[in-house]
Amino acid sequence: MTTSYRPIVSPLVSLLVALSFAPAISAQSRPAPTVTSDGILQSKRPIPGSVYESPAFTRAVQKGTRTRTGEPGPNNWVQHARYRIDATLDPSTNTVTGSEHVVYLNNSPDTLPYVMVHLYQNVFLPQSQRRDDAPVTDGIKLARVAVEGAPVSQLDRRQSRRSRGAAAASGYSIDGTVMQISLARPVMPHDSVSLDFAWSYNPAMTPSDGREGRDDHLYFMGYWYPQIAVYDDVDGWVADQYVLQAEFYMEPADYDVHVTAPRGWVVGATGSLQNAGAILSTSARAKLADARRTGKVVTISKPSDGNAAFGTNSPTVTWHFTAPDVRDFAWGASDRYVWDATRALVADSGQKPDTVDIFSFYRLHAPAAAWALGGARFTRDAIEQLSAYLWKYPWPTMTSMEGILTGGGMEYPRMTLMQPWADTLSLAGDLMHETGHMWFPMMVGSNETRYTWMDEGFTQFDEAQGLRVLYGEPRKGGRIADTEQGQRLLYTRTAAAGDDQILMTRGDLFPPATYNIMFYDKTAQILAALRGMLGEPAFHSAFRAYGKRWVDRHPYPNDFFNSMDTGSKQDLSWFWNTWFYNAWPLDQAITSVTSSANGVDITIEDHGLAPMPVKLAVTRSDKTVQRLDIPVDVWLKGARSYVAHVSSVPEVVRVEIDPDGLFPDINRANQVWIK
To answer: How far apart are the C-alpha atoms of 313 and 262, rounded to whole Å?
Structure first.
């Protein structure tokens, strides 16, 4: 997601943030320096230790579901669900009504006495804790909850027990945005349970929380149905309260969804439309085929067409979508939408390209002027560029929608929602970012709530790679965060001001003021720095290997660290500890360049806290450039200064640290010496 965050925080969450984040403040305190008789700055420096491994992760390794090489263990498993949902949109009452049948498959070796379910719409209840401003609604109204076809009732808190293996009355309890369904018959390993829900809610009027809601004649339904929480091999049930900051952790599932809307309302969704022959006119279907065949951007329908795109005279139309093996399902509808289509061609190396249908929905109004020019085209570009940089996009459709949001965009499987951009280059950047989330976390299913950097930071980095191929770098226009230089500036400027933060802080407890800069831009710069250390081929190979091995699984931070160590054939514990577990800025400086009997002595001091190798360029009077690499081991042994010795012939006229701008140093001014 790309958006701006407003620091509106409940008192309880404010306290949790303060307690959770206290170490990050002290981590930036620098040891008092001393100066020796020869003028060398000396001070004790923190030395990064080993990467922390939680007891739960250690147990997973012992059970063979995880490894310390970064690969899923031979006993790794992931839960799965099958959803059948029927939903009806009634714009006259601003109501979404739904019924849902879900079969939950227990692929784990554990017996489950209860099932945890997310009711995300309850975040809008008056009493709910929130980390952002939001309108108040009645939340989700449950008309029916059933287990194996038998209705169950709501329990009071004394009847509901959450401890594993505890006897519990059959029924359900609700705590904020989380429901627990206690089962009379536990779900045994490799067995299943069926659940049924009937529910309704009134979508919040925009601006709500930046992820879903309604506007005039436009609805977008995100986190709109009861969804079973993740049960994984490390932490068991992971059912954190949703507080409008940080996003979601979800299981892969199969979706079969029917959406009924008034005739004349166009519906776009996560899945593939199954009943186009029944609901679309012959003309509309021919246009879809033309877009797929030619790759041109073809307008399928627009508001001025009236009902020409529809092949039925019924006052309502039911759109039937299916979406296998995705972690969520979202949809949007409007009678003001233009519907454009084109195609993307994607392939793995050496393979025949596959065709992805690209759909773009937008309104004809001035704030969305860029959509008519580039909505479909930029979505296609993103799918093709990121497939080339990462790995092939696996699904048959990708949809982008304009509306609801007042800033940024929000990703869902096989589709994205974003603000009505008027600037084409900014729209291109936003679509590259949100489409990039189809890889992280839609395929590589990390926990966005707890480890936001694992999807937002990776996607921020990938976005810059895709845009650089299309538009070059540096470039004018667009958003500052769409380029590596811009991402570096956003992070280093914040770190230089003393506001660096620890990335391993939970996303839903992170300081809102620096949420985007740290999770997005700092993480992207860490990946760029790692690429600078390892070299592009080694980094790219290791990064892609990590992603591909964790598709449809749930990687934890240790899995990423271990995978990159294995791929690079290095122990990078010091790097992970420095950049993810601490808030240590990088500040390397050239403090003197002097001649001696043996040549020229270049004194480099580490004024920051982050140990990193030094890449030095020495330019001579004949314009030749000598490159030196000073290993990180110098700083890992506790040194604060290092003297590099070079020949005095030809004359040294310029010395620069990191001339290629590979690392996020907070003070470039002290990195250059010129005679």
So the answer is: 11
CA 588 to mean position of chain CA atoms: 31
pLDDT surpassing 60 at residue 6: no
**Residue 671, burial from CB neighbour count under 10 angstroms (0-12, 13-18, 19+):** buried
Q: How far is CA 405 from the centre of its chain?
A: 18
Integer Cα distance of 507 and 450 in angstroms: 5
Tokens 């990938």 correspond to 462
Residue with tokens 């291109």: 428
Asked whether 297 and 291 are in contact (CB, 8 A), the reply is yes
DSSP 526: H
Of the CA atoms within 13 Å of residue 439, those in its CB half-sphere come to 31
Q: What percent of the chain shows pLDDT beyond 90?
A: 83
Lookup: tokens for 587: 């500040």
C-beta neighbour count of 282 within 10 angstroms: 9
Q: Residue 244 and residue 509: Cα distance in Å, rounded? A: 11
Q: In the 8-state DSSP scheme, what is residue 240?
A: P
> In angstroms, rounded to a whole number, what is the distance separating the alpha carbons of residues 169 and 166?
10
Find the Cα–Cα–Cα–Cα dihedral 123, 127, 131, 136, rounded to 10°: 60
Q: Please provide the size of the chain in residues.
A: 675
Q: Which of 394, 417, 399, 392 is nearest to 407 (CA)?
A: 417
Among candidate residues 648, 653, 643, 550, the one with its CA nearest the CA of residue 604? 643
Confidence of residue 43 (pLDDT cuts 50, 70, 90): low
Which DSSP symbol is given to 130? -
* Contact indicator for 319, 261 with CB cutoff of 8 Å: yes
**Token pair belonging to 247:** 């996003």
237 bridge partner residues: 231
Checking DSSP bridges between strand 253-262 and strand 80-90, what pairing results, if any? parallel
> Counting beta carbons within 10 angstroms of the beta carbon of residue 41, is it exposed (0 to 12), middle (13 to 18) or buried (19 or more)?
middle
Task: Give the C-alpha separation, 4 to 525, whole Å.
Answer: 20
Long-range pairs, 271-277, Cβ under 8 A, ≥24: 271/321, 271/322, 271/323, 271/326, 271/329, 271/397, 271/414, 272/321, 272/322, 272/323, 272/396, 272/397, 273/319, 273/320, 273/321, 274/320, 274/321, 274/322, 275/318, 275/319, 275/320, 277/311
**Residue range 59-80: mean pLDDT, rounded:** 98
The residues, ordered by sequence, that sit 6+ positions from 483 with a Cβ below 8 Å of its Cβ are: 464, 467, 468, 473, 474, 475
Q: What CA–CA distance (Å, rounded) separates 386 from 464?
A: 10
Question: Look-up: residue for tokens 């926990």?
Answer: 447
Mean pLDDT in residue range 415-435:
96
What pLDDT does residue 83 have?
98
Q: CA angle 279-285-290, nearest 5°?
A: 165
Cα–Cα distance for residue pair 460/483, rounded to 1 Å: 9
**On the CB side of 145, how many CA atoms lie within 13 Å of its CA?**
23
Q: How far apart are CA 265 and CA 315, in angstroms?
A: 11
